[in-house]
Amino acid sequence: MRENTPLTAGDCFTVFAKADNNFEGPLHYHDDYELHLVLNAKGAKRVVGGHIEVIDDLELVLIGPGLYHGWFTNECKSQAVTEIVIQFHKDLFDEKFLRRNQLSFLKGMLQRAPMGVLFSPETILAVKNRIMALKKQSGFTSVLELLSILHELSTSADMKTLSDPSFINEKFYHNSRRIEKVFEHMNNNYNRKVSLAEVARVVHMPEASFSRFIKKRTGKTFTDSLNEIRLGHASRMLIDSTTTVAEIAYECGFNNISNFNRIFKRKKQFTPNEFRSTYMVAGFMHSPHVGLKASVA
Fold this sequence. Notes:
By secondary structure, this protein is of the alpha+beta class. The chain has helices at residues 95-98, 104-112, 121-134, 139-154, 177-188, 196-202, 207-218, 222-240, 245-251, 257-268, 272-282, and strands at residues 13-20, 33-39, 45-48, 51-54, 58-63, 69-72, 81-88, 117-118, 160-161, 293-296. It is built from eleven helices and ten strands. A hairpin with a 2-residue loop joins strand 3 and strand 4.
């Protein structure tokens, strides 16, 4: 469901504030960036791209343009849920501006935003009061404050990318061209058997050296990296088609349905059928931002 946001061409950003105990928004996407702060909503469910998770009391996520997302009441019992949503244009910071040395961290964070970026509780505590106060500011000062908040977030530790690049057909970014080349090869061949030896040859490395290299650079083994790419494509197929789970497993390069179900559940905390059901339910809910009060700058 595409959302038409109230952000106009003349605005730098807009801020929504909501205090309620109910998440009524459907799964949706829009053409703008969104910084979404949720407080006191433990037990609610977050859906971002191919990632589904039950949230805790502190929640701050940066959503990129075109990325499916939504928050749902699920098991949340709180009567004091607070949401602050900041939306800003995808061209507010153009590519030429982001190439400046001082903006390298911000550029890196915005490159990850099309997959959704989750910030740590420590980071949220450091910026939440500034985010909540932003709706009371206006003019040039408010734009400077937004830029300052985004910079602080971009330099924070322990940010986590939520969805898989393969779910949204997004390029895998890394500060190593060899790693990018490896992931490009795996993404182009995920639907067939791909061996460690084959991928090592892509970057002209011996198998043992490559195995150590990818683990050191990504924190994941070759097998885990390949499986995550396959799961990204499988997640997309679960949402976009009525193809059976077994057929999707084989089309995404898994050799048997049991192995696929086990890996899917371990990585995503839900079975493939539970994942598909969540999207089916989320797609038939009400209009987003019901009752939200907005201000723009």
